[in-house]
Amino acid sequence: MRLLAVLISAVLLCCQGAQAQVRTYDQMIAAGELKVAVYKDFAPYSFEDAGQPRGVDVDLAQALATALGVKLKLIWAPAGEKLDDDLRDYIWRASQLHDQQLADLMMRVPYDRDYSQKRNELGELENDHVVMFGPYQNEQWQVAYDRRRLDSVGSVAVFEQHPIGVEVDSVPSFYLTSVFNGMLAAKTHHYPGVPQAFAAMKAGEVDAVMAMRGEVDWQVHEAHDPQVALAQNAYPNMGKQRWEIGMAVHESNRQLSYALEEALEAMIREGSVQAIYARYGLQYEVPEMYQ
C-alpha cells in the first residue's frame, strides 16, 4: 500500500508539472514568443523544404504571431493515432516523448461542435481541457484524374472500371472499398501517402486519386500537367463530405484565443489568408462564420 501511495503521488506530481507548463496570454507576450504545434511532413500545410519550414499552416501561424507582436516558434508534431491524442500531447498534458513541451496553439483542428462536445463512456467531455476556435479553412474530399486515360468523372461508379489511388487507412480508402457493396474495391489501390498515389497516377498505375482537396490541389499544382484535372462528382452514402478547420488552445487560455480570432478575422477579410492559400496553388473558401 505504501508503494502504491508513492506511485500515485509521483504520477500526480508529473501531471501537475505538465499542466504547469500551460502559459497564460500575459506570459506568452512577456516571453515574446508564440509556440505553435503543426503537423510534421504534412504538405501543403506544414513541411520542411531544404531545411526551411513551409506550408499554409506555417505561413498562417507566422502571420498570427506577427499580428500579436511576437516571434513564432514551431513545434513539429508527428500525427498520433487520434486527434484526441494530439490535443493531449501538445495542448494540455505534454507527452514524455516530446520532452514535456506544450504549445500555446495547435493548427489544423476540426471546428466541429459534435467533436468538441464528444463524451466518453462515463458521460464526461473528452476534450474539456481544450478550446477549439477560429475556423480558417473549408476542407472536403476531392478526386483528381488523368484525362489521357479517363474522359471525365461523372460519378464514383467509373472506378468500377478505372483504377483509383488512395492513402492506406484513410477515409477515401474505407469509402471506396465499401460503397456500392464493395463494387469498387478491386480497382482501389493503396499507397503510403497522397504523393505516392499521385506518382502512381503519373506512372499509369491508376487513372485517378482521391484525397483531401488541399492535398490534391497541392499535388496538381506541383505536377504542372494540364492533363490532370479536378473532378466535380458527389460521393453518395459517404456521410460528412465537407468540414471546417480551425485552431485549439488550452481551456484556461481563452484570452489568447480571443486575440488570435480577432487577428484571423481581419486577415480573412483583407484577403491575406486567401493569398497564403494561392501561394501553394490551393483553392480557398471563406468559412461560414466570416461570410
The CATH architecture category of the largest domain equals 3-Layer(aba) Sandwich
What count of structural domains? 2
CATH topology of the largest domain: D-Maltodextrin-Binding Protein, domain 2
User: Counting H and I runs of at least 4 residues, what is the number of helices?
Assistant: 10
Biggest β-sheet description: 9 strands, mixed
Instruction: Tell me the distance between the termini.
Output: 60 Å
Under CATH at level 1, the class of the largest domain stands as Alpha Beta
SSE order in H/E notation? HHEEEHEHEHEEHEHEHEEHH
Gyration radius (Cα, Å) is 21 Å
Mean of the pLDDT scores?
A: 90
Unreliable parts: 1-20
SS-derived structural category = alpha/beta
- Estimate percent helicity: 25-40%
The fourth-level CATH homologous superfamily of the largest domain is Periplasmic binding protein-like II
Organism: Pseudomonas frederiksbergensis
Protein name: Amino acid ABC transporter substrate-binding protein
Signal peptide: 1-20
InterPro entries: Solute-binding_3/MltF_N
